[in-house]
TrEMBL record:
Domain Flavin reductase like intervals: 19-162
Highest taxon listed in the record's lineage: Bacteria
Keywords, comma-separated and alphabetical: Oxidoreductase
Protein name: Flavin reductase (DIM6/NTAB) family NADH-FMN oxidoreductase RutF
UniProt feature coiled coil, ranges: none
InterPro entries xref list: Flavin_Rdtase-like_dom (IPR002563), NADH-dep_flavin_reductase (IPR050268), Split_barrel_FMN-bd (IPR012349)
């Protein structure tokens, strides 16, 4: 009989390294409330559902902006272009004035959206789920922009990558 150790614990660095073998794109989640703008770099973005149109991303409970993000009525998820490593780094650095050198506009949902972006999804909150030391945000897409053929920025094993081309 197989036994499963539900209390298995892993060295956090080893677990992070193993999970980092899953190649992803990079997105910046942006929102605004009465205190101002907020934005966070994420690679935990995923498509969820086509009907209704749902996406998700995970936010660490340690994030300074988490309590505010949980209350906003709209946010955007902006998929970064290959040329936007600087944007990824800026929105991954706590304490930075993340919007100082960032071009953005107010989208139809009222959420700020990054310009340019490989694609942008403006969402209203659909659900927040417990995800251990993260909160899983599920958003319902209310507007989207996806134009242009420029390449996306990729993240793999803790480093930025570019798309080498389509597999045969
Ligand atoms: C490539 C990359 C991907 C990231 N992905 C996530 C993520 O999915 N979830 C998360 O909570 N933090 C992620 N981070 C870290 C956050 O961007 C960073 O902790 C955050 O910007 C700090 O925001 P704060 O000022 O609200 O604390 C990522 C960082 C990088 C560089």
């Amino acid at each position: 009989m197989t036994t499963v150790d539900l209390d298995a614990r892993f060295d956090p660095r080893e677990l992070r390294n193993a999970l980092g073998r899953f190649a992803t794109g990079i997105a910046v989640v942006m929102a605004r409330d009465s205190e101002g703008l907020m934005g966070v770099t994420v690679n935990s973005f995923s498509a969820v559902s086509l009907d209704p149109p749902l996406i998700l991303f995970c936010m660490a409970r340690s994030l300074k902006s988490l309590p505010r993000l949980e209350k906003v009525t709209a946010y955007s998820v902006n998929i970064l272009l290959e040329s936007q490593q600087d944007v990824s780094n800026r929105f991954a650095t706590a304490g930075e004035d993340k919007f100082a050198a960032t071009q953005w506009e107010s989208g139809p949902s009222g959420a700020p959206r990054l310009i340019p972006a490989h694609a942008s999804f403006e969402c209203v909150p659909y659900a927040h789920y417990d995800g251990g030391d993260h909160v899983i945000f599920v958003g319902r897409v209310v507007h989207m922009h996806a134009e242009g053929e420029d390449a996306p920025l990729l993240y793999y094993r803790g480093r930025y990558h570019t798309l080498a081309g389509r597999a045969e």
